[in-house]
């Protein structure tokens, strides 16, 4: 939701981005030539298999520009697809790579520098390599796993509202996965869990400190709706819907 010039109108930006069982590595600049990298865990937030763990290594990397970075990712199952994403400070999530069981089935994102490469030596493992790291590589790096053939669609793509009006965002999955999720990402902020639903409104979990004006409904297995009553300026964000099987 963003201000329009000359008025108090707001715009909700909605996205259909797909981020699966993930585990981020955060790089923080310590000095002008040293980077610190730490490992943390992010709750699954897109199409993926419930109960699957994705682990990244190492927990800490200290590098000078020009050195090489190697990040290893292992999934606890053997799903076909594994992914790498990058999120720079104050920036959106950027797709880097997808791999499908072998190095021969690799897709690279637009604008990814040549110093970034990926390998997939087994079903369970993928490695991200950055040769000759640069300061601009400072970011959170996400590894993910998933299956093909499932689409999650949100509508409308854009909402223009005045403060105090209500927002309704609809989400439909192309299959009948039990679990559906809602996440919010404000400008310059991390991904935030809002809601989890399992088949019905009676099986709903709400994230910490989510305002009461945010509610969710699950009237059928393939569909979930997010409602915001009395929208406020602070609700400006990208809203993500996701699905996963039991």
Automatic annotation (TrEMBL):
Pfam family, one: V-set
InterPro entries listed in its UniProt record: Ig-like_dom, Ig-like_dom_sf, Ig-like_fold, Ig_sub, Ig_V-set, TCR_beta_variable
Entry keywords, A to Z: Immunity, Signal
Membrane-spanning segments: none
Oxidoreductase listed as a keyword: no
Record's GO cellular component terms: plasma membrane
Residue span, Ig-like domain: 44-143, 150-246
GO biological process: cell surface receptor signaling pathway; immune system process
PANTHER family: T-CELL RECEPTOR BETA CHAIN (PTHR23268)
Protein name (database record): Ig-like domain-containing protein
Upper classification of the organism: Eukaryota, Metazoa, Chordata, Craniata, Vertebrata
